[in-house]
Amino acid sequence: MERRAPILPDPAEDAARWFARDRSGDMSEAQQQAFEQWLDADPAHRSAYEQCCATWEALDSVRTNPAILRMREQVRSRRRWVWMGIGGLGLAASVAAALLMPALFDSPRPARLADAGGQDHSTSLSTGVGEVSRLTLSDGSKVVLDAQSVIALRFGKDQRYIVLERGRAFFEVAHEARPFIVAQGGMTVRATGTRFVVDREGATAKVAMIEGSVVVAALPSPALPQAPRQAPVSLTAGRGLTDDGKGHWTLIKTDFAAEEGWMNGRLIFEQERIGRIAELVNRYSRQKIVISGAGLADDRLSAALRAGDAETFVSALVDLKMARVASRDRDAIVLTSP
Q: Which parts of the sequence belong to the FecR N-terminal domain (predicted)?
């Protein structure tokens, strides 16, 4: 297992995060106690928090400036963005980011799995909550398996066959004569030497090309006998394909930041459904986000999050007045429309 050196917290970033939570008015008693302990732990903490308060008061007049209000409404009419990260920003920007862009947390530590070994074998690999695992297969191909994901491998003399049963995986395929085939949902992805990501959530599936090329072919589905039979599709770098689970495919462009970011603990979304964002955030957190109501789930948001921090995602939605907390306990945070 790989080990990482500890990262010392930045008081300014912690202060901005506590400031955002305090202003949300939704801090639990335990969080309030933790906040007070943090303030008392180091004089630098209290000083950083007081600077946040002073800076926000100075920004208050800017927020109510008519020109700023017009700009904000113009942006809102186009799209909503939440950037959850404040590293490298000045204090004033950090305070503003605390309300619209809460602080990033450390990514989950990746586990190193053993070589699968052998050329003729079958095996299954899975990851738990918040676990991103990296492994090298017996043919030299590399796999990064996202949290709460499962793959089954069957390597024989004629082909290398992998089934993504759940979740998401990145493949860097070693070039050799045997085809490398990944099956998920209603499709197979055939490659010889390339880099790509496959993602499966229930019946829906996606392929995103990073480098090289693949051929995507349909799998017959007894459950959907009337579904349209899709012709094979060739994908090259920068292209992708989604399957809605009903036999309908859509060609898309690969979002490289999103498709590669999760491997380093960053979850990036461009005008994604809040329901889908919550599903992916839940892969990394034992405290699950539950979306109550289709209206909120179907609302869209662009966001850059740190994997594993459901709390700051919730705080941002509340502060943006996109959602309110209906209930919470140690296992779940239930969100509804405001």
A: 14-54
